[in-house]
Amino acid sequence: MRYLIWLLRAFLFLILLGFAVKNDEPVVLRYFFGYEWHSSLIVVLLLFFAAGTAVGILAVLGNLLRQRKELAVLKDELRLKNKLAGVAEVSK
């Protein structure tokens, strides 16, 4: 199974490498006030993909932290209720 995963990774790498080699044309990104950025198409695509991934992770991070905090509060409440009821705590 491990070899199959490495084979899949190598195949994916080669596909992405071929995509990068085929899309190396220069592009110009034009901003406001006459600013321009000259770069390769694959660099622009990679930067925007990375920026989108970072924005997505940041969007999920707030929800994840809130859920962790709520879970910790609920675990504390459960420990307290078990302690008051005299139930022995099961350790994992």
Give a short overview.
This protein is mainly alpha-helical and 92 residues long. It has one domain. Helices cover 72% and strands 11% of the residues.
How is this fold's topology laid out?
Blueprint: H1 2-22, E1 26-30, E2 36-40, H2 41-85
Antiparallel strand pairs: 1-2
3D architecture notes:
With 92 residues, the protein is mainly alpha-helical. The model has no long low-confidence stretch (mean pLDDT 89). A hairpin with a 5-residue loop joins β1 and β2 (36-40). It is built from 2 helices and 2 strands. It has helices at 2-22, 41-85; strands at residues 26-30, 36-40. The radius of gyration is 25 Å and the shape is elongated. The protein has one domain (2-85). The longest helix has 45 residues, at 41-85. Strands 1-2 form a two-stranded antiparallel ribbon.
